Amino acid sequence: MARPALLEDFDTRAPAPEPPPPEPAGPSADWLEGHAAGRAEAEAEAASRRDAAAAELAQVLEAMEFTFVEARAHVLASLRPLVSEMAEGLLPGLAEAARVPALIELVMAAAEEDARAPLRLTISPALHEALAPQLPLPAGPPLEVVADADLPDGRALLMTPEGRGTALDYADYLDELRQTLSALTHEPALRTEHG
Asked: Which of the four pLDDT bands, split at 50, 70 and 90, describes residue 194?
């Protein structure tokens, strides 16, 4: 039997490759380092923008310095001369023009309550002169109009024979109107809240 010849092996088979290294469980250390650096840079930029916006808002608010209370005070201050002119210039004239019709209305209201008895209207001499053209009242109650020099101007007394009376004082009425008008421009006491 023949023996096989031992010949040199020239086969070019490469040795079995080494298995690849196992995949890491997460991102690489380089990636994590880059991510952390990028995030820190973005957070710093966002904080810088936020601080700049807050500073700009503070400057705008400081520049405005015009709150609702200050605006209201400014409007009231600009209205004050108008209201003063109304109270001092217009009201006395209006009250003077309304005085005679108000007296007539007062007399008619008193007469409706008790039309049997004559009424006595005591007024100042100046008011008597203003009322004289209106007398006697057409279809009105019996009325005796008396001028009393002791009665201050702007005051009238209406009396029934039973002693019931009504007083009308235009000075008080004008004072009430002046107070009402001045209350329109009254500035309330300012309160500081929250600091």
From this structure: low
Closest CA to 123 of 136, 115, 132, 112: 132
CB atoms within 10 A of CB 41: 10
What contacts 127, CB < 8 A, 6 or more positions away? 99, 103, 147, 153, 154, 156
Residues 86, 141 within the same domain: yes
Q: How much is the pTM?
A: 0.40
Q: Which DSSP state fits 86?
A: I
Expressed as residue numbers, the domain containing 45 is: 28-65
Please tell me whether residues 121 and 44 are part of one structural domain: no
Residue 69, phi then psi, degrees to nearest 5? -65, -40
- Give the single-character DSSP code of 87: I
Going by pLDDT thresholds of 50, 70 and 90, the confidence category of residue 49 is very high
In a domain, 94, yes or no: yes
- Please check whether residues 146 and 57 belong to one and the same domain: no
Task: Note whether 120 and 159 are within 8 A (CB).
Answer: yes
